[in-house]
Fold:
Amino acid sequence: MSSVFRIIIIYFFFFNIIFNTNIFVSYSSETNSNDCFNNYYDKKNNIYLNQITIETNESRKWYKNILSIYQSFIENDIIEKKYKKKHKVLLIAKYSNGEICKYSAYIRVKGLSRFHLSKENFITSMDVKLISGHINNITGFNLFLPSSRSHKNEIFVNSFLESLGFIVPRIQMINVSFNKKNQKFIFIEKFNKEFLENNKLREGPIYLNANTVKNIGFNSFKIENTNWIKNDFERFISASEGLKKINNFFSLKKGDKKLFDTDKLINNDNKILIDNYHAALMSLNAFHGLGLNNQVFYFDLNKDIFLPIYNDGKSRFLKDKNIDDGNFNSQLENYKDFIPKNDLKTKINKINLTNLLETLKIRGLVITYNDLNNYIDLILNRLDKINEIYMIENSNHETFDAKNEKNFKSLYLSDYDQKIFKICDNFSFNCNKFNFINLNQSKILKQKKLPENLLKQSFVKTNHIYLGSDQDEIDDNFRNFSNKISFGKFKLYTNNDVQIIKNDKINRILELKQINENGRAIILGDEINNWNITFKGVVSTGDYKNFNNLTGCITFLDLNIVNLNFYSEWGHCEDSVNFIRTSGKNNIIHVINSYSDGVDVDFSNISFDKITIKNSKNDCIDFSGGNYKIYSSDLNLCGDKAISVGEFSDIEVFKSNIENSNIGIASKDSSNTTVHNIIITNVEYCAAAYKKKQEFSGGYISFDKINCQNYFKKFLIDKFSKIIENS
Structure:
């Protein structure tokens, strides 16, 4: 068929679409206030998305844009940014319980290549952002044409990696009716705040390939979730340090690909994790996911490690029956100098295959138990083959020397405190320094949100690249936790602004003192059992800084905590003490005179026998994303909430006494709070239940016995939430 005739056919199809009056819809005003699945009881643990209907608000405009994309393929295979403007739509979701929900949303074309355009239905992969409400606590997601993501192979690879504990986005095959045309898509959530928090990770930088960087001869990373920066220069510093590190790690060369050199990692556990991830991709015939172009990483600033996130492996694994199917052996031969050692067999043998089968079924892939067993055996055999090659091959890595590339401008952050940047020819020639204000006026970047645009690689000219930090690490810098003490089952890390007053390992007593408001301590490891720990802050009128993504003066991280007796005073930080991803029981907490929050507990499953807090300028206790029990608490002089429960938390309070606070107890954002016996005095509101964030639903509180006195209003409740008094 000639190109002229093909264009005539497409034009005919295009005009047939836009003049078909059946597809024109009027935008529904009822979506402006979306009550669907926003109520307190809508946790939807066993309710799944069945179907999506999308109706464009301006159909002619949408299809004209699609036609322009098709025409552009005559010159190149790339979908350019100018075709990716957002369009307002009505999105209707049907769930497995029969409920139908309407949402207002924005869509835009998604993808780089022609694989993201269906000629049959004249439709593309799409980026979707809900304006109101959420779908299973997701507000932003992508709808990929199955051919662009290897069809149901993507479902299998994603789900299998998840069963091994790797980080993956939520995914499923979904039927979509787009302007009354039916098309299957792969629903994949975006890499954003709600994605991280669903994986029990604190919001922080996510690095992926910067497709916007052109004409410099090599690939580099950008920050995907730059909204996290929020004009906080400390966050910009942290993200810039991570950008420098991740670019340095991708120094191995395989053809035109840049690969991760895990030998450069200082943390051996981090090396093992990433080596295992790469071996898993290889065993699944997902070699496409090994290069910089398709790798995604989360930088855990608290632990200074990089966590791989699965993204687009282009696997054809479901067709494989034998070890060499899908050219596995030849692919492995191509990567023989980059073969990682792995120890995945033990984890794989512990996978609950029945649960994995059910997960695959829910996500749109139905296979038999026998098929799954055969796939697992194939993966195990391939992993053995990978280890065999690792043992016999002498690595002869070719490194990528970007210094050979010419004719580009590199930017660096060279002085944190003075906010000095430098711009160089190529990597380090003819460098000129700029302060923050002068750089903002230099017109090389978009003028709004300078730090975010640097991290997004959003330059006016495409021969510029931001390579992150160029400042040398200084041991006495407060951002460096250079002091380390091992206590057997846990380790203590401090910066130089924390003094160790007492370290009695025999009697299990640890006393720390903050020298100034930048003093921070981190405790992490396996377990703390029967310890008395004290943290004394500094009495200061200065402002604190949140650096390295730390909000606590002292942070307990990834620990089982039993029989801890913790005392804190004058904590000059956002949180006097922060517990992150902890578990445990029989703990006692006593906190007085906090500059902001007294206690913050995130992503944990922990109980407290007794909590005593007095004089916190903000919340006395803040719980999020976990399961908690408080057997007894005395909370006095809390600037805002005495007990704050949020972000999908379940908490049981057996006995509590609250005085002199703004709100006694608040339950918000899909949280469930059960209170058995509580006395509240001198508050504006005894209790509050409400929805605060779009990705969550309302809050719920149940009181068995409440005695509240001297209040302005007993309960504050929005339309999505509920408070009940059982007595």
About this structure: The first strand starts at residue 49 and ends at 56. The chain has a mean pLDDT of 87.
